[in-house]
Design brief:
Blueprint lengths: L4 E6 L3 H12 L4 E7 L2 H11 L3 E4 L8 H11 L4 E6 L4 H10 L3 E4 L4 H12 L4 E2 L1 H13 L8 H4 L8 H11 L4 H8 L3 H15 L4 H11 L4
Parallel strand pairs: 1-2, 1-3, 3-4, 4-5, 5-6
Length: about 220
Amino acid sequence: MSAPVRVLIVDDQVLMRQGLRKLLEIEDSVEVVGEAANGVEALAAVPRTRPHVALVDARMPRMDGIELVRRLGEAHPEVAALILTTFDEDEYIFGGLRAGARGYLLKDTPPEELVSAIAKAARGETVLGGPAAARVVAALRRAPAEPAPGPAAEAGGGAELSEREREVARLVGTGAANAEIARRLFITEGTVKNHISSILRKLGLRDRTRLALYAASRLGPP
C-alpha cells in the first residue's frame, strides 16, 4: 500500500477547515498534516508540515489563495496547489490556474471526487471540477487568455509537436487524466507521461496546468 497523500488545508473559515479535516481523516489514502487560515500562515507551515497537496480557498485575508498558489510555485514547487472554493467566477478560476494551481474545485464537490482530485493533483495531473472545467474550456475558446507560455509556445511551437503529441495535448486540454488518455489512445500511462514531458519541453511550458490552458485555446477539441 502506498503512503498517504499529505494534505495542508488552507481556509479562513474554522468550520470549513474542521469539516474538511474530519472528512479526509477517514480516508486511508489521505493524511491531513496541518491547517492554515490564510496564505501567510500556509507559507510558514509548509516547511514544517511538508504537504504533497495544499487545499486552498480562493478568497482569504492577509494573502488570498491566488497569491498563495503563485508563491508556492516559486518557493515550494513540490507542493501541488488545489483550489477549493465557493467562487466560480472567471477572475478566480483563470487567476488560480495561471498562478500555477493543479486544479480548481467548488466546495459542493462530492467527497469521493475531492479525494480522487487530491490523489490526481499529487500525481501531477490537472483537476477541474465539472462546472469549472466547462467554464474554462468555453471561455478560452471564446476569448483565449494565454497562460504566460514559454518562448516556444509564444512562437507557435505547437507546429513542432508530432501528431500523437497533439492528440495527447488536446486531451490534456479537456482535463483528462493520464489513465483516460491512455485508454482513449490505446497506449500505456507511461507513454502518456513521456509524451507530456516532451510536449512541455517543446513548448517551453512549466507544468501540466499551463499545457491544459494552452491546448484548450490553441489546439482545439480532440
